[in-house]
Design brief:
The chain is of the alpha/beta class. It has a single domain (2-159, 184-220, 262-278), classed as Rossmann fold (3-Layer(aba) Sandwich), CATH 3.40.50.720. The protein is 40% helix and 16% strand. It has 9 helices and 12 strands. It has helices at residues 11-20, 44-51, 72-92, 125-140, 160-168, 187-203, 223-236, 267-273, 280-296; strands at residues 2-6, 27-31, 55-58, 97-102, 144-149, 152-153, 173-177, 181-182, 185-186, 211-214, 221-222, 243-247. The strands form 4 sheets. The protein has a 6-stranded parallel beta sheet, with helices on both faces. Helix 7 (223-236) packs across helix 9. It is globular.
Length: 301
């Protein structure tokens, strides 16, 4: 099975490439700029055609949540039009598409975890552009899985876990929002879930459960609880540590509004594909262990 994943630098793309190494049953090809540029829709089909995929993973996206408020046209060009073109290209190649979306399609007013049938109401441009992308993907290719995920981190790229470790290197205390709740999700786990689900989409021509799924880490916390766990785990491995001070969203104003509750229920994905994410704390430990080992290998001048 050959997967083409859009984006070379993204956390999910990097995790998929790594997960496929040493396996005989799957090959992952990362396709990104300049060959494939979601802001230039005319590049998409040729780039994916050259990759000769059995399935396409649409992971590339515009993810600058606050900056999107000032770059609405670009966010929609990439996250909506571009995503639709990826799904359309997959359809023209006769293959399914797995598209990554976000918890930010919700407004955060629900008391419990969101399920796939809950009404969407994004609070900002980023969430609106990703929701438009979901619609574009669904219209372009009936053989689609749309995976909404949340609070993604990994050993790769920029993310909350690595930011906390960096800040703890030169601060004794870090102020972190305590009134936004969600599911920390490791991109390593997302990659594992995709590789688990993909064969069913490719091999079973009668597969009838295409559609929207939530795929997030098991368990919930707020941002400050997430930060405490990251830094306590780091300290246990001999890495940087700082105290975490709880603050409210109003104490840390951002250009884009975030949902107060973006918890996702992944029960549908577990029921259809038989895969459940590990508890988020164990996944955080696995990532920090890798980050700390990587730091230990860097010589200090």
């Amino acid at each position: 099975m050959r997967l083409a994943v859009t984006g070379r630098e993204g956390q999910v793309a990097a995790s998929l490439v790594e997960a496929a190494r040493g396996r005989d049953d799957v090959e992952v090809v990362a396709v990104g700029r300049p060959a494939l540029d979601l802001a230039r829709p005319d590049t998409v089909l040729a780039a994916l055609e050259a990759a000769r995929p059995d399935i396409v993973v649409s992971a590339a996206a515009y993810t600058a949540v606050d900056q999107a408020e000032d770059e609405k046209d670009l966010a929609f060009a990439v996250n909506a039009t571009g995503a639709g073109k990826v799904a359309e290209a997959a359809a023209r190649l006769g293959v399914p598409v797995i598209h990554l979306s976000t918890d930010y399609v919700f407004d955060g007013t629900k008391d419990g975890a969101y399920v796939e049938t809950d009404s969407t109401a994004p609070l900002g441009v980023y969430g609106a552009s990703k929701l438009a992308g979901e619609d574009a993907v669904a219209m372009a290719n009936p053989r689609h899985l749309i995976l909404r995920t949340a609070w993604v981190y990994s050993p790769f790229g920029k993310n909350f876990v690595k930011t906390m470790l960096r800040l703890a290197g030169d601060r004794d205390e870090i102020a972190v929002v305590a009134d936004q709740w969600g599911n920390p999700t490791s991109a390593l786990d997302i990659a594992d879930a995709i590789l688990h689900a993909a064969p069913k989409l490719v091999d079973d021509r009668n597969f009838a459960a295409f559609g929207i799924y939530h795929l997030a880490g098991e368990g919930e916390t707020n941002w400050s609880g997430f930060a405490r766990n990251v830094l306590d785990t780091s300290r246990a491995f001999g890495g940087p540590h700082a105290m975490v001070r709880d603050i409210s969203t109003s104490d840390y104003p951002t250009k884009a509004r975030r949902p107060a509750n973006s918890r996702l229920s992944s029960a549908k994905f577990a029921g259809v594909f038989g895969w459940t994410a590990p508890g988020w704390r164990s996944s955080v430990e696995a990532v920090i262990r890798r980050v700390q080992i990587g730091r230990a290998r860097i010589p200090v001048e």
